[in-house]
Amino acid sequence: MNQPDQQRVVIAGGGTAGWMAAAAISRLLHGRVEVTLVESSDIGTVGVGEATIPTLLFFHKLLKIDEQAFMAATNATFKLGINFENWRSLNHAYLHAFGATGKDCWAAGFQHFWRRGLDLGLSEDFGQYCLERVAAEAEKFAHLPGNGLNYAFHIDATRYAGFLRELAGQAGVTRIDATIERVNVREQDGFIESLTLDNGQTLSGDLFIDCTGFRGLLIEKALHTGYEDWSQWLLCDSAVAMQTESVEAPLPYTRCIAREAGWQWRIPLQSRVGNGLVYCSNYLSDERATEILQQNINGNPLNSPRVIKFRPGRRLKQWNRNCVAIGLSSGFIEPLESTSIHLIQQGIVRLLRMFPHEGIEQAVVDEYNKQTVFEMERIRDFIILHYKVTERTDSPFWQHCKQMDVPDSLAQRLALFEKTGQIHRENNELFDDSWQQVMIGQGMVPKGYHPIADTMTERELADFLGHIKHNIHQTVARLPLHQQYLNSYCR
Ligand code: FAD
């Protein structure tokens, strides 16, 4: 029963976004809000979204989620990074791992010392100085004390939504299985008043969370919020996905294999593999994309290939009036660095911090939108980097990517790193060490380095680099194989 001072929160949509929001809000604002979620089993969910990044661990900590229970429920494996194959050039690969590379000295980043070592013939491949990268390549994993090994998960997205649904149910969320037929908007202020469902029910609320996926039923179809299109930089607008049975031990990393007009993912779960091809429809038809995917899978298919269309970009406002868009309804940056679930979680945590207990304040709404846009644009730039910095010219798609103009914010970062080896840093950015891993991995080696690296003698520099590498390899030698660890941890 709704108490008089309880806010009525209505969540429209029950995919990953809807159930993450329902679980978090009901558990953390328990007793202060009444949460109802409406989802349509006739419509279903997007059904993809299986690779995550380490920030998910914070979300789980906040919700007091037991990791072993979560892994068992979602068929999960551990993920230490992403292997980018054929991105810089055909037959070249580098692994973008979750950890930091080398050891920072307070005055200059490790990359400056590594860069000088290159000139002197002392440095090895940049990734050899990153623990997570070496562990991933050795297919090893274990929890190390003090978060010694940064990790995330590969999960079954459908099962994850089911797992969160259970938690949300225990925390009092009411679930309605029905299709929303109409969104009723108040005339005087344009706020959403209620949703009319196909079962005849009318669902009223104070705050509405739009988790209806690409449809954006509330935020766009009802409130006409508008969309900023990023397709001049992010060319891919389609994906084809299918699952296969496992034929080998699951790797502790995602594979991202560049193809003639896009890229293919392979996400290993405990008992199956998620596969897909993300592509640009200007350069590749759906039929040809499906053929390429089918030619490049291992193991028997478990379902038929499914084509998904999308438009890269962001909603102009993620919070508009009394509606907050979370998930695909808020915008979409392609899944190359597995950032969508992270953005969902960020949206939820931000909303919790700014929750309108006393009614909606425009200043709060503006701040929410400002922070969200900041975050999305930084991720957008990071994704564009992978396409722009390449040596590939073997297809019209890659020629276009190599030559295209990029946002000024990215152009400045690239110039700074290329000329000086310095990394542009802003507060609260998701990616940090990742920038240099990817820039170097894609073939951009800084022309210069910080002169502080010259204060070491050659002998000292060789020892410095050698010790880091030695310690990493010693640690990795003691780790069990990922499969072995999964067998004992996920029993
Ligand atoms: P959906 O899953 O589409 O859910 C929408 C919900 O709204 C459903 O429950 C539906 O029934 C309901 N709904 C819609 N209309 C109505 C209506 N009229 N009435 C009632 N209910 C309605 N993210 C990652 O983090 N990692 C990845 O590896 C990754 N890979 C991806 C690959 C591809 C090709 C794509 C397209 C996305 C990927 N994503 C990934 C993003 C990820 O899939 C989504 O962010 C995540 O699944 C959340 O989706 P959602 O809940 O917003 O939408």
From TrEMBL:
InterPro entries: FAD/NAD-bd_sf, Flavin-dep_Halogenase_NPB, Flavin_halogenase, Trp_halogen. Pfam families: Trp_halogenase. 7-chloro-L-tryptophan binds at K79. Transmembrane segments: none annotated. The lineage of its organism: Bacteria, Pseudomonadati, Pseudomonadota, Gammaproteobacteria, Alteromonadales. GO terms for molecular function: monooxygenase activity; nucleotide binding. SUPFAM superfamilies: FAD/NAD(P)-binding domain (SSF51905). Gene3D superfamilies: FAD/NAD(P)-binding domain. The active site is at K79. It comes from the Bacteria. FAD binds at G14, G15, T16, A17, L328, E337, I341. It comes from Marisediminitalea aggregata. This is Tryptophan halogenase. Keywords: FAD, Flavoprotein, Nucleotide-binding.
